[in-house]
Amino acid sequence: MEFELNETQEMIRNTARQFAERTLAPAAAELDREHRFPRAALAEAAELGLLGINVPAEYGGVEAGAVAYSLAVTELARACAATTVALCVSNMVAEVVTAFGNSDQRSEHVEKLCSGDYVVGGFALSEAGAGSDPGGMATRARKTDKGWVIDGSKLWITSGTDAGLFVVWARTSDAPGTKGVSCFLVPGDAPGLTAGKPEEKLGQRGSPTTALEFSGVEVGDEALLGELERGFPIAMMALDGGRVGIASLALGVGLAASEFANRYATERKQFGRPIASFQALQWYMADSATELSAARLLALRAAWLKEQGKPFTREASMAKLFASERAFTACNRALQMLGGYGYTADFPIERYLRDVRVTMIYEGTSEIQRLVIGRDVVRQFGS
Ligand code: CAA
To answer: Does the pTM of the predicted model rise above 0.90?
Structure first.
């Protein structure tokens, strides 16, 4: 077993860290306050190769692998979770088109995703009545002579207002549940496609989350991604990788909060000595350090399995479940360590706490992760 990073992984992690410190961290509080989409920062991320981290070089990616991706996401999220989630979803879209697209689709779209020509990619699966159960979706794609016409509405779409390309799931037959679902590539400026007003959210406010309305959106036959009516497994496979990204993101926010609070505790004095010298605070610090280290190992193990082409569905869900819940606890402890100061917007901890909360919800709730893990455990024991 090897715990050392290779040269490429080290390089991507350092690139992400420097970009995060230089560009993301100074703007994060303002983005949050003003609910502003970080368009310029994402363009810079594209220039650095961070929109195609695990995408082959022949399609414009940097081909650094899934472990490097996890490391980079953690660094970025230490500075700004809102920018990082837009970047994660875009990487997920670039990977899904690379994995399931034909050669024309790859050449047409993947380079534009990696280069930032599409700004970012969007992932349009969920609907008002189909969140944890996307097989209940109602959006339809109807076959015509020229291609397909899509009608319906999606909800909770990251970068809904700004994405230049969406991967969209729609029913193409009356087959029930997950069976009659196909997957399409739809340009963000397609006539008939409109994004709703960004939701007012608790956190990650620089990342616009919107509804998408598809009203007679026409796409050609070439928009179908993968096989007809085999779209659902594409969504599931994409989400396996996506969950490693969200685990890595949650970890980054938890680390940022812990590091800030640990530094504060060594400087803040009460009863004539630094509060870090009290056992109560040391136990908070010890628990967060231990839990976040475990979260990091789970995320990297899932990423490594993915990189090796081995099954990693269970491990991705374990990483997301554990990292998001432990990172939330770490942020909450960090706030407690700062006391009243932590509760004000003068310090970044309240933002970290708000930002980390959604990692227990998007890309599958904690309950769904437990369901995925539990089903796999049952399968292993032969029932
Ligand atoms: N890999 C490959 N295929 C998979 C798979 C996986 N991990 N999981 C399921 N499948 C396949 C199954 O093999 C099955 O294939 P067949 O049609 O060949 O039989 C098909 O998909 C249906 O599988 P299930 O019967 O297991 O499906 P289900 O209805 O029971 O649902 C679920 C399973 C795990 C609960 C799934 O619905 C799920 O993950 N729900 C959560 C959805 C989610 O995470 N949404 C996030 C939205 S995106 C987002 O948040 C992005 C963002 O913007 C931040």
So the answer is: yes
